[in-house]
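Box 3.1 A note on notation
Throughout this textbook, protein chains are presented in two layers. The first layer is the amino acid sequence; the second is a token string describing backbone geometry. Keep the layers aligned when reading.
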Amino acid sequence: MHQPTYQQRIDALRQTKIEHTAIKRRVEGFRDSDDKGNIPWLEPIPFKAVPNHASGGSYGARSIGANFRAWLEAHPAYIHPMSALAGAWISAPLGVGGWRPEDRPVHLYPLHKKYNLQFTGIGAQNHLGPDLRIGLTLGWGGLLKKIHTYRDLNQPAPGSEMADFYAGEEDMVIGIQHWIAHHVDAARAQASIETDPFIRQNLIEIADMNAWLVEHPPRTLREACQLLAWFQSVDSMWATAGAMGQLDELLRPYYEADRAIVGASSSTFRPFNVHLDDYDE
């Protein structure tokens, strides 16, 4: 295959999206809501949440973090051969999070019914705009180091709510790192049997890029987009969220840094980090 144009790659991605939508409509039926961007997956995923409540649910930072880590480690790898990035999400892990039965506002249910309130906002999905510069500056390894640093500094008592918080945060980040590493292995395995030179090279670049991102912050625009794609997928699994702020300004430094080295070989990277003193480790 000759090297495809950007438009040809976009067309291929769009065609896959059309096919995925048709599968979701066939399997799930009509859905009067946003398409969240998840891909259909018809095979069983080897995951079952470990509950910590008599209701059979998983609640609290420690339990949610441990279960989400297990979900990410079981979550299949997905790489489209025409995409510059790896990864896509399938669904939220069933039985993880939400409100404990004893915390639900049952005393308000009659009022909700009276006024036909279908969406009360209580326990609703989050649509927040997190400061993604923190993740772009530290990377997943830096975030994990920050969790360890402040856990050591605060020395939470075993079994305390603070100890559970740090344990849950640690499991979440490690789960993401393992999920990324799984895609590195998948990309390299696909590249080893791919006969098309363009697709093989793209898979190799995806593998190398994500091998770096397991621990380190992004250095290029492509790496920054990939980190945001991982965040977006996990955020969507948790609460079908997705607000990422003003992307043009968030990514501008990486774009400008790449422009400054136009002409360098594709294997040459210029180390680059946005300097944010407030987020220094």
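Helices lie at 6-28, 61-74, 109-114, 133-154, 161-193, 197-213, 221-239, 247-260. The radius of gyration is 21 Å.
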